[in-house]
């Protein structure tokens, strides 16, 4: 085998990077659990027809085929082809339908898994990446207050990562009812066409959007102008509602959407001050959202795009007459981690879990070192034994190269004939007892800390 | 969408099962870290040519194709097709080659991920499943003592799960040098043919193996008899070595292998008494092993097959003249979990992380309940707020159905006008303070305990 090269779009980290990623995943998981979300994992594959049914991103799906399958042989007993899931919402909706009788609603779950999209790789856009999703799903109905709660879960999760070096986040929130009510109140009834046009605002600018609105949604100049004025409204508090009303458009759905958006923004002002912003330009690409929609930007890293998006959906899971409306958000973990690592915003204090390397006096005394290591591990101190009974200087050098902070010397290695432990950073060496010694708390496990660039 | 059915071979658990699985994964991870193994995650895909190069299980590989790819269009820039990895050893070997300059050797890593094999599903055999691997890899050389250490890591990891309800495990250990030296000492030089025949012992019995040895390895009756006698030797201590020597076969490689196997068994007798057994029948299916090989059976569940296998390998990773010999073991997590859950050996104390449900007095007082929940979460108590301001009896019933042990009543809900918390299992209700109350330690998080069948 010649030395292989990385595959574009399939990121991998060195161990120190994986330590950072695991730290972030542990933190997300703990936050989700503190809010009462149960863990769930779904299989990585879904029948292709269900994947294609659920979205417009069919060209991004990876299809599976067994290498030795007979031509035309299908991949499951149902005779259907299988594809890798491209998000965690579609499999979750399927899981809820499949297990509805065994779940209690509203059902709260989080799910942290890889997803795959055959897109052209770019910075922060991968073909294989990890998402961390939280959703609440009701049977038949789902009260609005969950649209208030979900962004607070994320604000709690991401806010708690500030001391790791994560920059502040800004969640942009809108409500589909505001947009749809406003367009209908204006007399524009092809709402998807208007949404599609407005969604291009950042990319093509207001002039081109006005042209699109005219061409594809039949908007006159005054209607197009009003749509652009709506999209320009943004506020960190409830003041946005007055600015929308000042545009003079009236529709019951607009009123309902504004009231809902005010509740989201006001609850966030209490529980997560400074995080949420009502931004009436936010539309979200996928078209199954029906209420509040969310996007999240990292301050100073807006070029990265949204690191956490989602919204309220009503029609994703449906079996016969029964629907399962939900609201959820998805953190783009790989996108976040790649930026945190790529810009040295966050770093692990060492690339190994090991706290202590036990030196070996001679190969025939390795068992003594193994016993010391076992005693330290029993007390929760991560320990490994030196690879070879080399000169002690070389054993210390091995610890140094691996990033292990302490080297333990068995009695046979010390002049005094007792156990000693050396902090190889300071060079300080002191007597120690394998059943009593403890390292400083900060050294027990690798820490994840703000990186060189703060 | 009609109600979907499960896909055979792609297991999924209910939330209570996932809680058990996460508990097991957390325990494995912590044990591996205590032994100084660094976390690693590799991408799920490898170029197909590398997957096929590494093993004889080509027909089990899932190949990927982008749904909208042009005919003949390859899946990466190198023009190569991609497949899902079928184990974690092959991707690890590739990762080591790719990153050798940035790793310190001997390099110790663990890796817990999904793998995929397009095999016919059976009990305990899945098409998608989770493996937890530990390996040590050296640059150019790897001292034998790692073959002693690795099974101790696994014995520690699996032994520590006894109090969850895991039955005792028995690790069967052999050494390729014992087998190869013995066969060569007997005059049988087509070692792979002998290994393949002996590997069928359990399936076809000694008579058929003797026939196979004659037909495919050219063994005479005395040679075949000796091979079968070797395979029948098994002992929990070093006594196996005498029994092998009593067969009267001599070869330097046999002596080396016996000495190594004695060291493995004796170290295990000290550090993990009762777990390891030398079993000279063990061969392992994959043919890249060169030294110690391991299989692990669950007492009373031997029908499940091995739940943790591995061995010493020397030629898996090689770039030019540089080789990276290693030794590793892989826990079949999905196989283990499916048996633990399927036979009720282990259970979660509740199917939600939530410890407290805060009741809601009226929808316009929901914010009060949200504040109580936030205060509890800040102190690490997993809390959710009732879905609706229903009658308190119904709110308690909701907690009951979800498995939440405590319901919190805000002041406006209690006769005395103070906070109260109710243990819904005992019905006991008492005054409590949101900034001071703590649940019993056993209730803070779901516990994983031996199930009904012990």
Can you describe what's shown?
- The structure is a homodimer of 454-residue chains.
- Helix content of chain A is 36%, strand content 21%.
- Chain A is an alpha+beta fold and 454 residues long.
- The first copy, chain A, folds into two domains: 15-347, Bira Bifunctional Protein, Domain 2 (BirA Bifunctional Protein, domain 2); 356-438, Rossmann fold (3-Layer(aba) Sandwich), CATH 3.40.50.800.
- In chain A, the strands form five sheets. The first copy, chain A, has a nine-stranded mixed sheet with strand order 1-5-6-14-11-10-7-9-8.
- In chain A, α5 packs antiparallel against α8 (221-231).
- The longest helix of chain A is centred in the N-terminal third of the chain and has 20 residues, at 15-34.
- The relative contact order of chain A is 0.12.
- β3 of chain A pairs antiparallel with β3 (62-66) of chain B.
Label this structure with key terms.
nine-stranded mixed sheet, 454 residues, elongated, 14 helices, BirA Bifunctional Protein, domain 2, alpha+beta, 36% helix, Rossmann fold, homodimer
Q: What strand line-up does the widest sheet of chain A have?
A: 1-5-6-14-11-10-7-9-8
Topology-level CATH name of the largest domain in chain A: BirA Bifunctional Protein, domain 2
Number of spatially distinct domains of chain A: 2
**Total number of beta strands of chain A:** 21
Largest sheet of chain A: 9 strands, mixed
Structural class of chain A: alpha+beta
Largest interface: A-B, 106 and 106 residues
The tally of helices of chain A reads: 14
In whole angstroms, the N-to-C terminal distance of chain A is 41 Å
CATH class of the largest domain in chain A: Alpha Beta
* CATH superfamily placement of the largest domain in chain A: Bira Bifunctional Protein, Domain 2
The CATH architecture assignment of the largest domain in chain A turns out to be: 2-Layer Sandwich
